[in-house]
Amino acid sequence: MRKLKMGMIGGGKNAFIGAVHRIAANMDGLIELHCGAFSSSPDLSLESGKELGLPENKCYESYTQMIDAEAKLPLEEKMDFVSIVTPNHAHFAPAMLALENGFHVVLDKPMTLTLAEAKLLEQKVKETRLYLCLTHTYAGYPMVKQARNMIAENHLGSIRKIMVEYPQGWLSTGFENEGNKQAAWRTDPSKSGISGCMGDIGTHAAHLAEYISGLKITQLCADINTVVSNRRLDDDGNVLLKFDNGANGILVASQVAAGEENSLKIKVYVEKGGFEWHQMEPNTLVVKWLDAPAQLYRTGNGYLSPIAAFNSRIPSGHPEGYLEAFGNLYKNFALTLQSKLEGKEPTANMLDFPTASDGVRGMAFIENVIASGKSTQKWTEFKI
């Protein structure tokens, strides 16, 4: 089994998420960085590629040049897939071009700038029968998968309520006006889309709620706020939810929760108890019982489900965190591609990564939430 060759679009020098993707992709020895168009600046792309140890001919000036050149190479010499780690407005065009030229895609969330673009991308994935992995990182944690498995196997009964919250504090001031590039594009409608906070972290919370529960959001009622003066997009919001089994829930996302770091957490209440997981304490899953003491499930132990074990790397007591969860998305994606290259069908465990359909639901969440926030109607149907 050979290593898969990854091309990268974006993620050049001083870009936070590009380095995260490269570490995650490299973690299990299944993938190697093969080429890249790391910046819209040709000079910076070349400089970034050289620092990453790539030969000059694999440091492309643009993503169009890279995809065109790689597509013309023999199978054993070209990249196998492309990883796109650009701001939201620069997702659709390179992803579509990659698919049209026969390349699988790893793509940061949200999938596109608009729901219409997301639908076109999903249709292209179906037409080409290629794979697209959307990096909803929190779906990669072993204890998230343990909770999902226990809920699917109906250990505690049917779901009644879901509470998910994602507070951050880093945009509590006008950080975007102080030269911070990450803040600047996230608060710019031309680059981020119609939503700031809900598009950036609310989509993570919504995906986590649906992924763990196995349910789908059917209705919502949103209170969307822009707290910091002169900010052009939302930075805070509260959303009431209804799910397709009749359960209800609440989603809170804020980037003006001063003092908070990355405090994503979820509680799922069922007939006989509940499940609780915190992203900043990711190796612990709390299982609560109606008539018995709470239990702590911990990463790396032999009592975990096969899917949780499949996504763990080291024995209990050795913490696994964000990078390992990110690595699980890349590992499962890579194993799926390897199986296809070998003429085999990938297993369910291999196929356990977010896809284009999750991306469409994420964009639908954004558009429905913003529409609801502007409406005086109590409930908004979750439309795609």
Description of the structure:
- With 384 residues, the chain is an alpha/beta fold.
- 35% of the residues lie in helices and 22% in strands.
- The chain is built from twelve helices and 14 strands.
- Strands 13-12-11-10-6-9-8-7-14 form a nine-stranded mixed beta sheet. It has a five-stranded parallel beta sheet with strand order 2-1-3-4-5, with helices on both faces.
- α1 packs across α11 and α4 packs parallel to α5 (115-128).
- The longest helix is centred in the C-terminal third of the chain and has 20 residues, at 322-341.
- It is globular, with a radius of gyration of 21 Å.
- The model has no long low-confidence stretch (mean pLDDT 97).
Any chance you could write out the topology, listing elements then pairs?
Elements: E1 4-10, H1 16-26, E2 31-37, H2 42-51, H3 63-71, E3 81-85, H4 92-100, E4 104-107, H5 115-128, E5 132-134, H6 142-152, E6 159-167, H7 181-186, H8 189-192, H9 197-213, E7 217-225, E8 236-243, E9 248-254, E10 265-270, E11 273-278, E12 281-289, E13 295-298, H10 306-310, H11 322-341, H12 356-374, E14 380-381
Parallel strand pairs: 1-2, 1-3, 3-4, 4-5, 6-9
Antiparallel strand pairs: 6-10, 7-8, 7-14, 8-9, 10-11, 11-12, 12-13
